[in-house]
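job 3f2a | input accepted
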Amino acid sequence: MVFYRKYRPQKFAEIIGQDHVVETLLGQLTSGKIAHGYLFSGPKGTGKTSAARILAKAVNCKVYSSQSTVHSKEKSVNREQLTVNKFGEPCNKCTSCLAITDGSALDLIEIDAASNRNIDDIRDLREKIKLVPVSSRFKVYIIDEVHMLTREAFNALLKTLEEPPAHALFILATTEISKLPPTILSRVQKF
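job 3f2a | predicted structure (191 res):
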């Protein structure tokens, strides 16, 4: 096993050196008011992907969805319907948390933009995003090294970020924020 995967933080409390990010994210989670898109930027090794995976766990943790999980096949589901409960630190014990930890979660899609950078890759994402989550509250898309997307791919992604389905959450990660178009930056919360 790769060293950084073995010792990757599994809870917000385990993230070191990013207190301002952790505090803001936990504040949003406990209020139940989460955004549809986040951007984590910074140098390699600062915890961007780890924070993204923990956020994916937190919004899908079964501890916070025990009252009711709303899945609707209708296209116009309000985000408020899906955020009936508040969120918080992931439990790391439920089936959803364990699936995300071991990499078997069907509702967590990690895309490496360095390898999947063309417009056809984003068009494929746009088609698949219409499908409701299999077993979670949210379908979470983590796009790593998002600055590697082509201009056409960014334009296709923009449409999805402007009108995302209520069950979708985008987390973009990059080491080079200056390469992202202003239109993308304006549609996400930046950390």
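job 3f2a | Strands lie at 37-41, 108-112, 139-144, 168-174, 189-190.
job 3f2a | closed
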